């Protein structure tokens, strides 16, 4: 998108702005439609808790990184823009990590492994490059929020099935034991905990989503 | 101004790097004391948790229950330049078992004495650690806690859950045949065996070797405690023979 597309005057939540927030949830989902950020979706969806923490931190980082680069968009030299984007994302993540370590140590212990993954997350770089460099801060903020939330949403759905079927728990509560299924001979499926099953669950989500959204189905 | 000229690009890059570096170092240095305090509190609450004490204020509880902190080297209490609490276990385990200096915490709860020893070893993706609390005989395990930095959630990371840790109380560390705890694949029944984590074999094996490696420096000291508690009247002779033997 280019700067010429900037509208003159519109409300904070005009239809266009709302679609920035909502589109990524379905028709333009970063994971299931654009197939970005798959690597971290595999790595951290074994349990719900890290998936939720990861989703939240990605929302914070995409939204802030989008706003910051959007504010600087008319100052950034074109030739080093990718480096500038990387510096913004990396310092944001380091900052977030330091603050968490100092004030909410427990959460930071959950997150520590995944911080590196946030920096390498292609969704963040993709949104900066494709959107915030050509749009106003408010629009970029909505776009970052929407994409981060869409990413987090898919992580939570995948983690829900993997934790429930693979571990018999949800957010560490032993729901399967509580329902008494073990007494009936039910066994956890350990394969759900292995990375390939994350791909299969994502694929099933893509299948359901395409079946329900005709605009996503290819013509041939 | 032409934002794509070479001059502007260089200036922009230099200014950006300096600003970001300053911002990050200010953040890191100003938050450091808080972070160090968190790490210290966590260590204290881990040590307390291994003897079954949990509470909000680890600082005061630690001072209340941990009566003595010793430095052990090759089975004997030694004087050391650094305090036991500040010993960096990561550096300690890199040295050979005979030369490393390791801490031993002596806790008193009611009229019972417990010993807490720290553990540190390798998991699959990174370091794993833990604490063993031993009963007054220096042999029977009262409680065990484990931690890890990046083991796989749901697999290796399960060592930090009660399901794994609750197997340890009541097991013994030393018998004539074996020193340590065997982490087995199924059928763990003996006094020195626990069940490993399915799908977390490398972490489970790491726990086993961590235990035997970290126990080595304490062996002579803990044996002297255990014979002391069994036959108090022979303490002195036993102590001196053990010390000569270990030298």
In a few lines, what is going on in this structure?
Chain A is mainly alpha-helical and 220 residues long.
Overall description:
The complex is a heterodimer of chains A (220) and B (247). Chain A has nine helices and no strands. Chain A is mainly alpha-helical and 220 residues long. Chain A has one domain. Chain A is globular and about 65 Å long. The mean pLDDT of chain A is 84. By secondary structure, chain B is α+β, with helices and mostly antiparallel strands. Chain B has one domain. Chain B has seven helices and eight strands. In chain B, the strands form two sheets. A six-stranded antiparallel beta sheet of chain B has the order 2-1-3-4-5-6. The N and C termini of chain B lie far apart (78 Å). The model of chain B is unreliable at 232-247 (pLDDT under 50). Chains A and B meet through helix 4, helix 5 and helix 7 of A and helix 1 of B.
Summary keywords:
heterodimer, A: 220 residues, mainly alpha, 0% strand, B: 247 residues, alpha+beta, six-stranded antiparallel β-sheet, two-stranded parallel sheet, 7 helices, 8 strands, 40% helix, elongated
List the helices and strands and how they pair.
The complex is a heterodimer of chains A (220) and B (247).
Chain A: H1 15-22, H2 38-43, H3 48-71, H4 81-103, H5 105-120, H6 122-130, H7 137-167, H8 175-179, H9 195-212
Chain B: H1 6-50, H2 58-65, E1 66-73, E2 76-78, H3 89-92, E3 101-109, E4 112-122, E5 127-134, E6 141-148, H4 162-165, E7 182-184, E8 193-195, H5 201-215, H6 219-230, H7 235-246
Parallel strand pairs in B: 7-8
Antiparallel strand pairs in B: 1-2, 1-3, 3-4, 4-5, 5-6
Helix pairs in contact in B: 1-2, 6-7
Helix % of chain A is: 55-70%
Structural class of the secondary structure composition of chain A? Answer: mainly alpha
Helical segment count of chain A: 9
Structure annotation, total helices of chain B: 7
For the residues shown, what is the average pLDDT of chain A? Answer: 84
User: Quick one: which chains have the greatest interface?
Assistant: A-B, 31 and 26 residues
Q: What's the rounded overall pLDDT mean of chain B?
A: 84
Strand portion of chain B, in percent?
A: 15-25%
Straight-line distance between termini of chain B: 78 Å
Helix content of chain B: 40-55%
Largest sheet composition of chain B = 6 strands, antiparallel
Count of domain modules of chain A = 1
Largest sheet of chain A: none
- Total domain modules of chain B: 1
